[in-house]
Amino acid sequence: xxxxxxxxxxxxxxxxxxxxxxxxxxxxxxxxxxxxxxxxxxxxxxxxxxxxx
Length: 53
Known about the structure:
Elements: H1 8-50
């Protein structure tokens, strides 16, 4: 989306960089949540297997 002066390209690149950071942050948060839920499920399984729950 370059204009006649070619000044729009840096702003477009900055938007892409910001969107990439936002997606990476969301991805890390989702991975952390999935990891914690998985650990809880494993702990509950072990406790129920041992009859402690």
